[in-house]
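help with this record:
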Amino acid sequence: MKSKLPCDVVTDLLPSYVDGLTNETTSSYIKEHLSECSECNNKYRSMMGMDITPETSDEEEKEIDFLKKQKKNNTVKTVLLFATLVLCFLVVAVIIMSRPKTPDFKEIAPELTRGDTFTFGSYEQDANESNGSEPIEWIVLTNWEGLGVIEAMSYYGLDTKQYHSEKSAITWEESDIRAWLNTEFYDSAFSEKEKYMIQEKEILTPANEYYKTDNGNNTLDKVTLISEAEINAIYVNNGDGFMLKCYPTAYALKNGAFVDPKYNECDWWGRGAGIHEGIASSAKSSTIGIPVTTKGITVRPIIYIKYK
């Protein structure tokens, strides 16, 4: 029986074996060892310049085939997923493109007349702040086509505020409500593009028409309230009566807006002076007015939008 050579001996003999310098007996021992030892066989094959990729067993072959199939399946799935995503994108794109285009405000503005409505800006209205603010609906008071400017008042009572937090001889210029309209409301309701379109305008503040109560200096405002004269003009013009009807938003109700249970309508602030100091006009009391600290009165802002 042949005695088997250890690996270290075979390793030492391999150079001579490769060069054909070992005798027949030693060569037969080395050959037998190489057939059984993959490590030494790889060394031999390397010396001979042969491919040293180890041979694989049937089980290894099966595993390799399985991995190849798995890779192929994954590739197919990836391609199908990509194709599905592309298809979904195309469908969404077609839906968006097929929607009727919302006309730009500047396109429709020249055709708007007193009493028409449109949307511009956004403000919380449904009392669900988690879904963001809602578009503000406005009603046209005046359209100066020559100047390309529309005077508009919000259709709904958007919020509820005191005219002023302290009962005092307050004027429109010094009122809390004016400060709120031109800072907090203005900043939250309009985008930078919309702000660019809103015209800063000199606001006239004449004394009360009947009681001559002083209303302070004229102001420069981007957002204002309806004047005593404008409220009275609506009363006079029977066709404008619908403008006096004011309904609070859900958000205004949440903030304490008072609603007349008989008509389900709310009152809203004007910017005029009332019967005496500490009183401001409102839609339902344009000349006499109500105390400036009254709560539950809604706000219907007025803006001047330049469209040319």
Residues 58-98 form the longest helix (41 residues). The chain is about 35% helix and 20% strand.
